Amino acid sequence: MNLILLLPQDFINPTEVNLTGRRLQHVRSVHRAQVGDTLRVGALNGLLGQGVVTQVNDEHLTMAVTLSTPPPAKLALTLVLALPRPKVLNRVLAAATALGVAHITLLNSFRVEKGYWTNPRLGADNLLLQRLLGLEQAQDTGMPSVDLQRRFKPFVEDELGTRSAGTLRLVAHPEGAGPCPRAVTTPVTLVVGPEGGFIPFEVELLQKVGFAPVSLGPRILRVETAVATLVGRLF
Amino acid sequence: MNLILLLPQDFINPTEVNLTGRRLQHVRSVHRAQVGDTLRVGALNGLLGQGVVTQVNDEHLTMAVTLSTPPPAKLALTLVLALPRPKVLNRVLAAATALGVAHITLLNSFRVEKGYWTNPRLGADNLLLQRLLGLEQAQDTGMPSVDLQRRFKPFVEDELGTRSAGTLRLVAHPEGAGPCPRAVTTPVTLVVGPEGGFIPFEVELLQKVGFAPVSLGPRILRVETAVATLVGRLF
After folding, report:
1. Residues of A in contact with B182 (CB under 8 A)
2. Which of A26, A143, B163, B191 is 20 to 30 A from residue A111's alpha carbon, by CA?
3. B189 plus B89 within the same structural domain
């Protein structure tokens, strides 16, 4: 937790906050915060700044906060990700958020196991928590949006084309693809497949709505490694 | 396991192998391999190819193997990594191996907790297993070397300069650094600090032996995310 992210409900008034729960536990056990200590804070979707601890006990911690600095810019990147295994989902959501991805779509695909869609980790609480962890890691306040798309064909055919209008459309695909471009200056919509990759029908449908297959070479990377490598290359 | 990596002791003769243990379990439970099935294999530090299952039971699996294709090239990259938390160590070793890093040094630093050095995950068996997992993921056979350096100052002062001669020397450091170069064509030695970063003394010592601080921007990334992002940008 490199940043204590302040939620709207934490504010008692515009310059004073009251923390409970996960963040209180962390600040007490890891930061070992005492009255008078200064901590790095940021308001969700707002400014970064500092908080001075005014009171701390087992149940809550209050801080006087000064918010003054804008957060780092988001990447002009929408990530469309075949829904990963639940264990991987947490890591990739937090990592994509930390990297500054602006929007994340979790998409069905032929090789996504049906059971992944009913896993509790897809609940709104967990999707929020993983993004909070990513923001806290990166010292960012700008929450990326997430949406779930359980039907590949109608989403790609009817929505993705419109949503990605004006962006560079790329699908990471190891086979028969050109190299991934570098240091782009336009917004990007990047589609990343499941373990085992997209099936040919899916790649063809993505190509029909304008997505160019791009490759990082012959190595097959785990999704979280691939996303970070692609971001490093693209931006 | 996108590749079954064959170790020297697996070979009964140059074209026949016998698998037991972890790989047998995986091939039986995940691939559900039957006699006659063809599996993707590769000989450790050797060629890639195919194996046809000739026998399979609870105790072993034999294959007739044909090895013909060279593995993907390694990156011309030596990664010098402040020893991460044990839980992170496994992920970063496997990911760095999958990315194609040629050599990994695990280095002490002021902010590395002493206890990390006595954790069982630093044992030779686990260091080997994590790299095997990375090679199996990436369909590579070339095992990166790993060495452990428990004394920062003598290693940096007396060894790192010589070891990194002729390479582009970079240390990832968020503060006061220039942007990380892109698409380099020379070999690179890349130093990545611990959670919380190197202390100024350490950065200064690295600079003395020729390492230039480079930054990926204001976002603080987890070590495995940072390494993948840097590799994507550099190569």
Report:
1. 182-183
2. A143
3. yes
Q: Are residues A132 and A40 in the same domain?
A: no
Same domain, A87 and A132: yes
pLDDT score recorded for residue B177:
80
> What is the distance in angstroms between the Cα of A195 and the nearest Cα belonging to chain B?
10
Chain A residues within an 8 Å CB radius of B217: 72
Closest CA to A17 of A25, A29, A5, A32: A5
Residue A66, both tokens: 């000064």
pLDDT the model gives residue B175:
76
Give B63→chain A minimum CA distance, Å.
23
Q: Which value does ipTM take for this structure?
A: 0.94
Q: Do A115 and A96 belong together in one domain?
A: yes
Domain region containing A52: 4-69
CB pairs under 8 A between A and B: 89
Query: Which residues from A are below 8 Å from B72, CB to CB?
Result: 217-219
- pLDDT means per 10 residues, chain B with 235 residues, are 95 96 92 94 98 95 97 97 96 98 98 96 96 97 98 98 97 86 96 94 97 93 96 96
B181 with B70: CB under 8 angstroms?
no
CATH number for the domain harbouring residue A28: 2.40.240.20
* Distance in angstroms (rounded) separating the CA atoms of residues B222 and A95: 8
- Give CA–CA dist A120/A111, Å, rounded: 20
CB contact under 8 A, A219 and B140: yes
This model's pTM is above 0.90: yes
Task: Using alpha carbons, select from B183, B8, B43 the residue that is nearest to residue A183.
Answer: B183
Residues of B in Cβ contact (< 8 Å) with A229: 99, 228-229, 231-232
